[in-house]
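#random but structural
TW: two for the price of one
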Amino acid sequence: MSDDAQVCPKCQSPYGYPDGNLWICPECAHEWTLEDEEITQDVSSGPKFLDANGVQLHSGDTVRTIKDLKVGSETLKSGTKVKGIRLLEDPVDGHDIACKVDGFGSMYLKCSVVRKD
C-alpha cells in the first residue's frame, strides 16, 4: 500500500484516496476523515461486554437473566439473579460470561441474555 492510500474503515478496501480533508473509498463510496478513523479505533479497541439493554458489563457485576434458558434437563427461569460474573476475553462457544448460579452450578452465559442488576 502506498503512502497516499488508506484502508476503508467500512469495507476494508485498500484503495482509499484523499479528496481535500476527506478520504473516499472507490469501492463502497464511504467517506471519512483520519480523525474519525482514530476515534473509531480508540472506541473499538478492547472487547466490549454489553448486556441486552446495551449497558456496559464488568467482571464482578450482578446480572439477571432476561428469558428462560434450558440447562440440561432443567430450566433457568427469567429473572434469575447471578452474582459475581466473570467476563471472558476468549469466549467459549459464543458465551462470554462465566458464573455460578445457585442450584445449577458453574456455567457460561451470553451477554445478550442478561441485564445488569
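TW: number two ↓
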Amino acid sequence: MDAENLIEVATPLGFTVRCTRRYWEFIVTHKHPVLRGRGPEVAQVLGDPDEIRRSRKDPTVLLFYRGSAPRWLCAVARREDDSGFLITAYPTDVIKAGETIWTRSR
C-alpha cells in the first residue's frame, strides 16, 4: 500500500480495491460519519466478505457484505478489469437484492 491509499486489499474475486485517504475522509465526513475510524473493518469486508452481490443497476458495481442479521457492514466497489475502487461503505440491516456472485464456503 502506498502513502496515498488508506485501503488496498485483494478481494476473493481476484481484483484489488483501493481507496485514497482523501476519498475515505469524504466518505466519513459527508456520506457515513458512523464509519469514522472503521477503515480496517471496511478493508476486512472487501478482503474477507461473507457474500458478494452484483448491483441490479450497474453490473460493474459489487456489494460486499460481512456480518450477520440484524447488522451487516456493506462495502460498495466498482470493478474495472483487475482493479477497483471503493464507492462507499455503510452499516445496514438489509442485504440488497441482486445477483449473488460469491459466498463464503461454510
